[in-house]
Amino acid sequence: MIRTSITGKLNKQGFTLVELLVVIGLIGVILALAVPTTRDILTVNNLKKVSRRIIGLERQLRAEAVRDQMDYVLMLDIRGASYYVITSDMTPEKKDEIKKKAIKFPAGVAVLDVINQKDEKISEGVVKITFGRNNVCSPVIIHLGENEDRMTLVVNPFLGVAAVYDQYVEISPDDGFGRDTAKRGESSAL
């Protein structure tokens, strides 16, 4: 593009200083808006990602069970640090096929144990969490860990995930799911 300068002569040298400053300013504004989002995506720890994944999966399976009028079962493989979902009407062959495609947690994240409604602490094997067509699920307390970090998810049979703790919390089903009798006020209810 050929420009005419104030003196009337042709100017073939490029952009003015003002134009360059405006472009640099716009790039700065865009970076200022994008960097916090990108930083959060890159620095969020795997334990929180897994807990959000389980919370989202719980909500999804609860809704799908009611919508499809079919029981869904979340299978948490404690030793394998993975999970998969089956339905009540699947054949054993289909269940085995889905089990082979279990979704693994990120490296280092483990299910430490699960406490069921009978107040049994299960730390080995596969735990079944059933989501019924009547919008009721198996009440459980899930303890997750990564290195020294711990999280506790409390799944209420009627309310879904009732509490999330950023630590390992001992809660008895008799005390009520979602209520910590030892340390009140440290949960973040969803």
What key phrases describe this protein's structure?
190 residues, alpha+beta, minor pseudopilin epsh fold, five-stranded antiparallel β-sheet, four-stranded antiparallel β-sheet, 3 helices, 11 strands, elongated, disordered C terminus
Write structural notes for this entry.
With 190 residues, this protein is α+β, with helices and mostly antiparallel strands. The protein has a domain at 46-175: minor pseudopilin epsh domain (minor pseudopilin epsh fold). 31% of the residues lie in helices and 28% in strands. It contains three helices and eleven strands, in the order E-E-H-H-E-E-H-E-E-E-E-E-E-E. The protein has helices spanning 17-43, 46-68, 92-100, and strands at 3-4, 10-11, 72-77, 82-87, 103-104, 109-115, 121-122, 126-131, 140-146, 149-156, 160-165. The strands form three sheets. A five-stranded antiparallel beta sheet has the order 7-6-9-10-11, covered by helices on one side. A four-stranded antiparallel beta sheet has the order 5-4-3-8. It starts with a strand and ends in a 25-residue tail after the last strand. The model is unreliable at 178-190 (pLDDT under 50).
